[in-house]
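Now for today's protein.

===
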Amino acid sequence: MSSFCMDKEYGFISDKCLLSYCLNIHQDGNVLEICVPNGSHGSHVAHIAAGHFPDDPEKDGLAPGAQIISMCVGDIRKGTALTEQAFIRALNKCIELKVDVINYSYGAVRNCVGEGSFKKLIKNVVEKYGIIFVAAAGNDGPALTTMGFASGKLHHSVFYVGAYLTAEMKEAMYSHLEAGNSVVFPFSSRGPCVDGSLGITFCAPGAALTGVSKHELKGSNLHNGTSMSSPNAVGNIACLLSAMKVEAIPISPFRIKIALQNSAMIPEDGSHHPYSLGAGIIQISSAFELLKSSMNCISTNITDIKINAKNKRGIYLRELWEVNRIQEFNVCVKTKFNSEKELEKVVTFECPIILKLASGSEKDFVKYPKYSRLPSNDISVHIDPTILEAGKAHYAEIVGINPQNQSLGPLFRIPITVIIP
């Protein structure tokens, strides 16, 4: 048997347990690595994103033609907890292999993941190498500010995916007597993040009945969690990338993020809030149409349009001393570029902006100017928490839109959350 990464050869330890294994041979044969599964979570996630059953295509995942690379970032000696060294090695391997999209369906202890080496490497992965990074939002809901992986702080270009439960899923997967309305799963973590960012980018179905490792001795299993919604989004994104390559549409993580956010669907049934839903439910066909029709103004060397409100990614007021008086914020909006390509476009980039409140925002407590511009500008935001009802969370979102290309939707969003005790 040769290295799996070379010839895709694998075997089973015995016919009784069906525990699979494969080999990786390193250093000219001097180091032998024997790989076995330590659970079924990864296999279930992979099936959602890209499972393929040639004889039974109804069981296929979202992107059955995608090529899967599995990397272990947990240490079984520590209860499969994330280790920093393994995570950094995995990201470096993704760069080496030139992957298109990363799915991260894994938890992390908050104090394990700081803003140092992790954040710098993910910034490099996304901005320099153009790899899309998608992460599970976490399963610590339904309380507010329960975002998972590093509280959403890792990098502003990471897509954080919440878990959605449709009425059809309730009936078909959970055998509910009455389907009722579609909802965000109660366990799905909610924003806003501690630094004011909304946290959830968008939602995707957060449960799946699909294949697991053969040593489980069953053909499929039902699991739910944001670990399931993240690969659902990744499978969708893989299909989107494939279509973009066929149509020769330029690809960048920021373009994909704008398209997915601005084409996401807000469900009509039930009560939904941006803290739990983000921009809405991922809609891949609508995103593709948006990319084809309205994305020419977004160059591939734009990596993000960053919000900075007193060194935070949004405005979040919840302490008594913060909400008992009127507050003024100077919000800096700045376009970030990949400094290693198309420098002429960096120099010439200019974009007029009109500012609006997003649909569903509370209006009375926020004042802001009508116009702005890119690549950078400071926006004065006036907030009056004293007029708001106590015992509630109040939300507004200022969005920046190019008046010459309004069909594209917002280029940036300034989230504002005020909680009155």
In short: The chain has a mean pLDDT of 91. The longest strand covers residues 327-337. The chain has three domains: 1-36, 40-294, 302-420.
